[in-house]
Amino acid sequence: MTAPNGTVTVRRLKDLATLVSLSKRRGFVFQSSEVYGGLNSCWDYGPLGSAMKYNVKRIWWNAMTRRPNMCGIDAAILMHPMVWKASGHVDGFSDPLVDCKDCKTRFRADNTDSYINKKQCPTCGGKNLSEPRQFNLMFKTHMGPVEDQGSVIYLRPETAQGHYVNFQNCQVTTRYKIPFGIAAIGKSFRNEITPGNFIFRTREFEQMEMQFFVKPGTDEKWFNDWKEIRWSFYKKYGMNMANLRFHPHGPTELAHYAKAAEDVQYLFPMGWSELEGVHNRSDFDLTQHSKFSGKNLEYFDEASKEKYIPYVIETAVGCDRLFLAFMCDAYREEVTLDEKGQEDVRVVLGLHPEISPVKVAVLPLSKKDELCNLGEKLRDQLAEDFEVQYDESASIGKRYRRQDEIGTPYCVTVDFDTLNDQAVTVRHRDTMKQDRVAISALNEYVRKGMKESF
Ligand code: ATP
After folding, report:
1. 3-state DSSP call for residue 272?
2. What would the pLDDT profile of 173-198 be if each residue is shown by its tens digit?
3. CB 269 within 8 A of CB 16
4. Checking DSSP bridges between strand 360-364 and strand 388-390, what pairing results, if any?
5. CA 348 to chain centre
6. Is the minimum distance from the CB of 314 to ligand 1 under 6 angstroms?
7. What's the pTM?
8. Strand order in 343-349's β-sheet?
9. What structural domains and CATH numbers belong to the chain?
């Protein structure tokens, strides 16, 4: 549907391919090892993507560690192999894998509709399929020079075990009393059978996980509190809340040790899918590590003089998946028809400014030396406080569009009047409204706008 001349219609993101293309064109995400033809389901974050990913991590980290009774850790990827025995990953972290003998496709039996409903291959529709067999998702490697069974070590498939094995270290050094929490951001690895949908499911990814240790009996209250805390995080950073929902795990989805679990699902272009998990993991993890390590991981509650193994409420979100959700949510096409009925499309990434890779672009109106010199000075002034891009190429209209497409909230143009009045024009990404602002007040103007207008 198109609107009459002059009015603007807004189109949301229709498919992931549009985002993959924008990401490559503008430097958000590239295929890994592209010059060698790429490596399946591995991606590299480019100049803008790495800056944006850093912002995603920073807002999550601050949201977690600035709460009372919270601390952070940064645990090693390689852990003692017994950790994965205790956690159940060696014996149970597997997905059912099916091979199609006709077209050689490999797929997961438990999330492939054609298999679940009709026992058919999702690629060729054939029925010449192997029986499902359990495939362990952990990547194995060897520690040290000898590659024998005794040197097997795993790349961690989640960061959470680093929290559990450091539970006592953190409690003692922070002197926190229960309830308290530990947050961590780090790489995890899973040898997924069917990775895909761009950065949604990959074999190497980054997780942002938080474990909150509570007194048994208070766990249900904390589970609900953490659901609310996480919900308000998404609201604060400008997500369209109609694209988010909670999905409680039914009895068949619930892990054997979990008392309750709910996914935060996001409406990605391929449909509702898990973005984050909020789990009540009971006392399973610390009990297991007590058993396998022989160390007593009980907590002594001074107030009640009781000893107990704390329950754990976990929130776990993939950084790459959240990055993707923010991109999908922010993408819009503003379509206007000209007199000839031709579409003019303004692509905008309406990212929250805390997430945008660039906060301000400095654009001299012409390539004349006086304007460029001043523009460069202005870039340095703004770079004291913000990520800035300086661009003097192409028409001003084109340069505005470039910045809209990468989500820059403010563009500053330097014109000939600037030489006399020491003021610049600030153009706002979302409204395209323009303000004249004194150079001396510019940093404060941007800082205040980022805080108050989004
Ligand atoms: P899924 O059902 O999608 O396989 P999961 O339930 O196994 O995910 P968790 O183990 O709870 O996921 O991991 C927590 C979060 O880590 C997920 O909500 C997701 O955001 C992220 N995550 C998990 N696996 C991957 C992956 N292969 N690629 C990217 N992110 C992932």
Report:
1. strand
2. 999 999 999 999 999 999 999 899 99
3. yes
4. parallel
5. 20
6. no
7. 0.94
8. 8-12, 331-337, 343-349
9. 29-79+157-327 (3.30.930.10), 358-452 (3.40.50.800)
